[in-house]
Amino acid sequence: MRGPARRAHSRRGRNASGARGLPPRLLCCALLLSCWPGEDSRAADRLAASYLQHCAACHGADLKGGGRAGTALLGVELAHGASMDDIDGSIARLPAHRGAPGEPALLDAQARHGIAFYVAERRAERLSAKFKLGAPVVVPAGVIASERHAFRVEEVTAGLDPRPFSLQPLPDGRILVSEKTRGLRVVGPGGEVSAYIEGIPGAHADAQKSGWGHGWLLDVALHPEYADNGWIYLHHTKRCGDCTDAPKSFNRVVRGRIRAGRWVDEQEIWYPGDTYFSAMPDIGAGGRLAFDRDGYLFFSVGIKGRGEYDGADDLGKPWGKVHRLHADGRVPRDNPFVSSAGALASIWTYGHRNPQGLEYAPHSATLWSTEMGPRGGDELNRLLPGRDYGWPRHSLGLNYDGTPLRPGVPAGGAAPRQYEQPVIDFTPAPALSSFIVYAGSRFPRWRGDLLVGSLKGASLYRLELDAHGRHVHTEVLLQSLARIRDIESGPDGAIYLLLEHPGGGRILRLVPAGD
Question: Which of 243, 256, 295, 441 has an alpha carbon 20 to 30 Å from 30's alpha carbon atom?
């Protein structure tokens, strides 16, 4: 939880398919295609070619049927389920004597998995076909009927920079908003937007020119006792001041206070040092903050390390991790790797790719994250101390070349690595962004549910978990809206959405229909 409202040297690396020697900036683009609309067209072509070779004779080149069996795969319910695993299993069960080209039952696991992914991805694109990055934002009018609550959507303001990152409601009804390349502003209860707070770290306006960014302002959060101490926490990427070969930056967490429109009393809470300056762009930096009920600060650092694909599972490197500290920056004595030689003592979990959401659930005393995968493989994870979440060795998504990311058998008879599996795998990926664990009073039948935003999917999801943290149900609350960058619950229990859009960032508010 992010505030009292919820008291509630660049090196050439190896990519996942074994390629060496890519320049860091090219490697960055290859790794992060799923963070912005667009795909690796060559991988898509390979998957499509495999489908055409083995499946089109029965299901049609356009997946709409009309072939030998005439069975459509788009626009219909699939008899044996529509998840990737369901489709994969259906292909494996096909009898070879049907005589379909390529004998589907004889396909190896990798080929089946690729075809299943292609079909599932095409089905998902059909569901979100209306969404385009530059399409006008249409705020839904009237009452929206959902399974447990009827609600309305109100526009708070449309006067933000096109690239906002985070919002944080304040106890007095105002809202702090961070804009990646511009700074921190305050939105009043009536939607009025302040000037930028002076002295905010990060937020380099010229970072817009590079597209991917170096020197962004990321998350903003309040100390659990903000009403008494006024501490505001910022996660940003510090830019290298004397790097002349290429832009570089790395994550940093600070806290300070706002007085008379200025950022004052700044204290550095976490920064691993200039040695970690990286040419990996800030779009993969993660950058979220969360406090638990005991006042510990958690923060996520995505794949931001030296232009390398590897390192997320290396305990001696700060990227690809969720870290845990006291609110003043001290390392807790019970952190899982405090006594491990060569490990960074702040690490709580590791093996993360691009964690875009981080939240604490007070009702279950558990920490959760949303994470973007590569081609597919977006995840909802329950974060347990000391656990490995797989990246870059394991994902339920695919590499950008279309091959699966699954662990092989280690050489030399070593025991296989154990990876914590996601509670929910979102494949095909909607590009999950931030989320909340709802604990407010305005929507009582949503308490304990996760409200999750998406970028490419442009949708808002409600996820139900049981008492053991297992996923039991998903509902789409809003669809084909816009890129939802952040979600927060205000002190009054209203739900706020922060939208990214080329025409200007916006804040929307969800309120019960009867208000």
Answer: 243
Other CB atoms closer than 10 Å to residue 326's CB: what's the count?
A: 14
Q: Are residues 119 and 160 in the same domain?
A: no
Q: How do residues 1-27 score in pLDDT, each as one tens digit?
A: 665 544 333 322 333 333 333 333 333
43 lies in some domain: yes
User: What one-letter code names the amino acid at 466?
Assistant: D
- How many alpha carbons lie under 13 Å from residue 339 in its C-beta half-sphere? 2
Q: Which residues contact 112 (CB under 8 A, 6 or more apart)?
A: 88, 91, 92, 104
Spans of the chain below 70 pLDDT:
1-44, 67-70, 95-106, 124-133, 208-211, 306-309, 401-402, 406-416
In the three-class reduction of DSSP (H, G, I as helix; E, B as strand; rest coil), residue 145 is classed as strand
By residue range, what is the domain housing residue 450?
A: 4-13+133-512
pTM as predicted: 0.84
Contacts of 56-65 with CB under 8 Å at 24 or more apart are 57/100, 57/101, 58/100, 63/119, 63/122
CA 250, CA 271: separation in Å to the nearest integer? Answer: 8
User: How many structural domains compose the chain?
Assistant: 2
Residues 6 or more apart from 504 whose CB is under 8 A from it? 158, 159, 160, 161, 162
**How many other C-beta atoms lie within 10 A of the C-beta of residue 343?**
17
| Residue 380 contacts residue 437 (beta carbons within 8 Å) | no
**Rounded to the nearest 5°, which phi and psi values hold at 284?**
-105, 15
CA distance 197 to 183: 7
- Are both 180 and 58 inside the same structural domain? no
d(CA 164, CA 177): 7
Interval 35-74: pLDDT, tens:
333 444 555 677 778 878 888 878 888 888 776 666 888 8
* CA angle, 35 then 37 then 42, to 5°: 95
